[in-house]
Each structure stands twice: as C-alpha cells, then as structure tokens.
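About this split. The held-out portion is used to measure sequence recovery: a designer receives only the structure tokens and must propose an amino acid at every position. Recovery is the fraction of positions where the proposal matches the reference. Here is one held-out target exactly as it appears in the evaluation file.
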C-alpha cells in the first residue's frame, strides 16, 4: 500500500479561507502572545488526556456537557487553526466543545448574524481537521501507530456525535445543519479510491497484456489485504470493519475489471484466463489463502462474475477445447500417415517398433483434461465427455487410415515394421484408457473397438504370407489320405518356427496374441482338412488309427504353440474331442461327446458334425440322423465367445 498517490483522500476544501483573511490582522497583533497561547492550548490537551482507568477520547461520553474533560478556557479559533496546521489532532476535543458551545449560544438566543459568523469559523476548522484525519487514514501503513490511533479516535468521536445529533432530531435555531458529518463514510470512500489506485496501477513495463494485468491485480489485492489483517486490524476499532472495507473495495474494482473484459469478444486464451481467475485463482488462492480465509469468511464477497456469465464462458471454453483437440489429433494422424507413405521406418525402443502417435494423442487429451480441471473439477468432468467423443472419432479415423495403408503400402520396405509399430500403439492407448479414464465398461469397449479392429487387420497382414506358405502343406493331409500325418505336421510346425522371429518386434503381449492367432489357424486348418469328406473309414480299427494320429498331431500343435507363448487353452480340446468322436463306435457315447463338444464350441453346427461323421463309414443313416439331432438340444441361440467353427465353411 506504499505505492498510493500523494493526493489526500478528500482534496483540501476552500471554505473558510475568506474568514482567515479577515482574522489575519488580528492574528498579527497577537503574534507576541502566540507562544503563550499555544502553550495554553496544549496544556488544555494534556489536562484532557485520560489517566489509567479513565475512558479514552474515542470512548462514548456521557451527557456531562460540552466542556467535559477540559479545564480552563477553550482555545481561540486562531490557536486551534495554528495547532491544526501543525498536524495536532488533539484539537478535536476542544473543537467539539466549541461546536457544542455554539449550539448552546443558539439555544440562548444569540443573534443570527453572530451565530453564522461563529459557525463559519467552526466549520472551517472542521474542514482542516477532516483533511488532517483522513489524510492519515488515507495511508495508514505510513503513519505512526499512535498518530493512527488519534485519527481513528477522532472519526469514532465524530460518529458518536452524528448519532447523538440524529437522536436529538432537527433543531429550530438559525444554525445551519452540519450533522451528520459522515467521516466514517468518507473514510470508506477513501479506501475505495485507494483500492482503485493500487489495483489500477500499471504492471511491469511492457507487460500490459491481460494475463499480466490480472496477475498484478491478484497479487496486489492479496498482499494488501494481508497487510490490512496483520497491521491495521489490531489498531482499528471494530466498528470500522477495516478488513471488510478494504476487501469489498478491492473486490469491487477487480469484479468491475473482469466484467469489462468479459464484454469483449474474447480469444481462446483470454476465455481460459478469465475462467481460471474467476473460478480458481481468485476464490482459492486469494479469498481462501491461509492468512485471509478466516478473516473474509463472513464478508460475503461472492464471485467476480454472475453464474449465468460463467456458464456461457465455460460453454465457450468447452467448444474451443473440443475444436483444438480435434485439430491437434487430426494433424498428428496426418503426420503419421505421411511417414508411412514416405517409407520412413519407425523408431526402435527396447527392441520393439515404436511410434510416437499414441503418446502424442494421449498427451493432447491429457492436457485438455488438466486444463479444464485447472478451472474447476466440475468442468474437468464435463470436458471428459467431450474428449471421449473426440477420441472415439479419432480412433475410427486412425483405423480407416491404417486400413488404407495396409492396402496401398505393401511394396514399401518399411511396410511390416510400420504395421508392427501401429499394432504396438494399441497397447499405449489401451493402458491409458484403462488406468487413467474412469469410464463405464460399455464406453471403454466402444473406444477399444477400433483398436481391436486395427490390431486384427494388422495381425492378418503380418500372417498373410505365413498362411499362404502353410496352405499347400495342410492340403497334403487330404491329398495323401492321411497316410503320413505326423511328417506333414512336422513340416508345418517347422515352417511356423522359422517365421516366428519376424514378429519379435511386437510388444510381448501382442506377440503372444499373434502366436495365439497362429495356434487358432493351425487348429482351424487341421479341422478343415478333416472335413473334406475325402476320407471314409469303414472299420473301427481304421477309425481308431486315425484318431491316434489326430491326438498325436493335437498334442504337437498344443505343445509348440504353448512353448512360444500361446495362452489359448480354449483350443486344447478342439482336436482331441473330434478324435474321440471318430474313435467311438457306440452311437449313444458319440451323442454324449457331441453334446459336450457343442457346449465348449457353440458354433459347432450340424454341417460340421456331418463332415466329421462322414469319416465313419460304418454308421447307418439313422445313426447319423440320431447323432445330429443332439445339436437341436445342445446349441440353441448361444453365441460363441471365441469363433472357431464359424471360421470354417462346409461345402
């Protein structure tokens, strides 16, 4: 508060100046007696000071008369004027006594001319006293504590006199009404002017941007109010409400500036700045700061903006952030697609192909979330729904662009590496969503859907050449009529084993998923060959021999895939149970096995069953029909959680 202007709270008043000119000659005649006269004035003040146990000059007085607390004759107008010009606030009490004597003279029938002359002198002295007192209170931190207490006592005494005059009612004398003087109100007005002067001060040179202006006002208000609480409140009487007076004045100036700023067409940055100050910094860092929270609790300053205007600003903020997030994510995807098209290889990180796209997108989303939460947690919750919509839109665009790359980029040298890098992206996206986004499971599934499709198409692309290499090997089963099934399977497994290192740059979890996809492919292709209807075995011995081959092949497939990371335990009974159906000869036993199998694999249809039963050349048509009927009971409308037989078409 030391930066306040040198002007007084109330400019010096000119009333009474003519009176002093009239008295000038008389004052000169008494110049020789002045020293003695002033001494008598201050002796009066000294006699009027309180002793221990007596009330101070700021304490309520009784009705003992206008001369209470004063001994001897009252000082003259000239003596009081001289004392006031020297800044002696002790003259307040004899001046008040002079005012009371004037009222007594009016009641005693003095002439109107005499009363006007005497009242003009008294009021001129009051103007001087007012300027002295309010000048001290204008800069209370610069005044000595004792002088500040004197000024406060004068104001308190004048307030009491105002109340007594109001209680007495309007008089009928020739005196002009001068009460209430409202010095406390003038003090409050001075506080408001001081607040405006302090808050309206220019920030650092060349920093008049809105952020700097708000920072200047916020810092000034906080520091000044803390000074009021720590240094002024202990000195000010409670009736002044000094903390509330300063707080309300600073608040009103701050709120007026905020309201004026909000009237303009705001850019995104200024909209955010206003909301941060109105909703966060002002209420939390200033009003609820440790030194001010308890003092301002009952003041009721309220918000810097009305609720309706805040809601409009928040809606604008959400719209701005949605547009920004969308633009940033779109740009990030465009840059990523450009790298694909330009055949730029991805980075390698910890032995894995790595893309920055997922990190960029997660950061864009997180920054928008944090930005909203820096205003209020409620706004953070609101923007979460907006961001989820934008993220889902992005993921669908990402899936679309990646699918186009899969089709168009097959001849690029970095094709497979970029495919792997984008599959690896799915892990970062999924981990962030599951750990950082508290969303319902259906919403999470919706977000993960495009990523699951992207990963699936990526796997299919990576496995395409391997599957093509395996196709002729699987055909050997049916072409040789299952004569050498073990040798054929060994070649299949060896081929897969040679190709698996190509997928080592996938993240470990995805490499395991890809091995599971290979596992599924091996089991599926094996069943397809069994369902070709090219093999018909009419004896139980032949069927048992084929069942043995199938069991041995199933065990080899399961062992190989498990060893390389497959956790697809659900595939384990697929081939052994078919082998058991082929081995069994009792139709009733076959029915039980088929019913159990349909429970494990709900997509196992009558067509698939018929293809397997066709191998058993010793079953009658009625037996086949009876066995097939068990699926009418077992399957129903159940959907498979994992497809197997739905991937197998029966001709």
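Reference sequence for scoring:
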């Amino acid at each position: 508060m030391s930066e306040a202007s040198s002007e007084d709270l109330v400019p010096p008043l000119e009333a009474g100046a003519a009176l002093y000119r009239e008295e000038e000659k008389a004052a000169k005649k008494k110049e020789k007696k002045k020293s003695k006269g002033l001494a008598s004035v201050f002796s009066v003040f000294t006699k009027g000071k309180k002793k221990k146990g007596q009330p101070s000059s700021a304490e309520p007085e009784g009705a003992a008369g206008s001369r209470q607390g004063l001994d001897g004759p009252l000082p003259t107008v000239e003596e009081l004027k001289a004392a006031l010009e020297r800044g002696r606030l002790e003259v307040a009490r004899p001046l008040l006594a002079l005012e009371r004597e004037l009222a007594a003279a009016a009641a005693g029938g003095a002439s109107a001319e005499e009363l006007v002359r005497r009242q003009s002198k008294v009021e001129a002295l009051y103007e001087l006293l007012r300027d002295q007192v309010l000048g001290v209170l204008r800069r209370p931190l610069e005044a000595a504590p004792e002088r500040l207490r004197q000024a406060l006592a004068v104001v308190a005494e004048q307030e009491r006199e105002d109340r007594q005059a109001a209680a007495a009612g309007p008089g009928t004398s020739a005196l002009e009404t001068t009460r209430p003087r409202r010095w406390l109100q003038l003090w409050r007005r001075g506080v408001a002017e001081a607040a405006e002067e302090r808050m309206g001060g220019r920030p650092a040179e060349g920093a008049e941007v809105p952020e700097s202006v708000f920072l200047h006002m916020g810092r000034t208000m906080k520091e000044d109010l803390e000074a009021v609480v720590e240094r002024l409140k202990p000195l000010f009487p409670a009736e002044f409400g000094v903390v509330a007076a300063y707080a309300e004045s600073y608040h009103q100036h701050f709120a007026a500036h905020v309201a004026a700023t909000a009237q303009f067409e705001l850019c995104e940055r200024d909209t955010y700045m206003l909301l941060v100050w109105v909703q966060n910094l002002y209420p939390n860092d200033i009003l609820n700061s440790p030194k001010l929270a308890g003092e301002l609790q009952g003041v009721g300053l309220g918000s810097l903006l009305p609720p309706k205007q805040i809601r409009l600003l928040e809606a604008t903020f959400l719209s701005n952030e949605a547009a920004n997030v969308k633009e940033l994510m779109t740009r990030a995807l465009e840059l990523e697609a450009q790298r694909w098209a330009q055949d730029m290889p991805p980075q390698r990180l910890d032995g894995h192909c790595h893309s920055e796209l997922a990190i960029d997108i997660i950061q864009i989303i997180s920054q928008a979330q944090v930005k909203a939460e820096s205003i209020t947690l409620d706004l953070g919750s609101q923007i979460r729904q907006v961001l989820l919509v934008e993220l889902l839109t992005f993921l669908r665009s990402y899936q679309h662009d990646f699918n186009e790359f899969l089709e168009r980029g097959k001849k690029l040298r970095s094709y497979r590496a970029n495919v792997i890098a984008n599959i690896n992206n799915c892990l970062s996206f999924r981990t962030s969503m599951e750990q950082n986004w508290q969303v319902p499971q259906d919403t999470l599934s919706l977000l993960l859907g495009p990523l699951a499709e992207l990963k699936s198409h990526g796997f299919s692309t990576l496995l395409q050449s391997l599957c093509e290499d395996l196709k002729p090997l699987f055909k050997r089963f049916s072409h040789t009529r299952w004569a050498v099934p073990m040798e054929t399977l060994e070649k299949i497994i060896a081929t897969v084993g040679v190709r698996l290192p190509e997928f080592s740059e996938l993240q470990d979890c995805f490499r395991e998923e890809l091995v599971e996809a290979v596992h599924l492919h091996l089991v599926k292709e094996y069943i397809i060959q069994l369902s070709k209807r090219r093999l018909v075995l009419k004896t139980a011995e032949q069927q048992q021999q084929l069942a043995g081959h199938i069991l041995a092949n199933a065990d080899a497939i399961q062992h190989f895939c498990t060893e390389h990371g497959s956790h697809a335990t659900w595939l384990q009974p697929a081939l052994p149970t078919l082998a058991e159906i082929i081995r069994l000869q009792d139709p009733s036993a076959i029915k039980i096995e088929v019913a159990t199998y349909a429970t494990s694999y709900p997509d196992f249809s009558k067509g698939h069953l018929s293809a397997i039963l066709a191998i058993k050349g010793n079953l009658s048509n009625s037996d086949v029909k009876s066995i097939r009927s068990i699926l009418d009971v077992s399957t129903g409308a159940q959907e498979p959680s994992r497809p197997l037989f739905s991937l197998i078409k029966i001709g």
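Annotator remark: Residues 459 and 517 are 8 Å apart (CA to CA).
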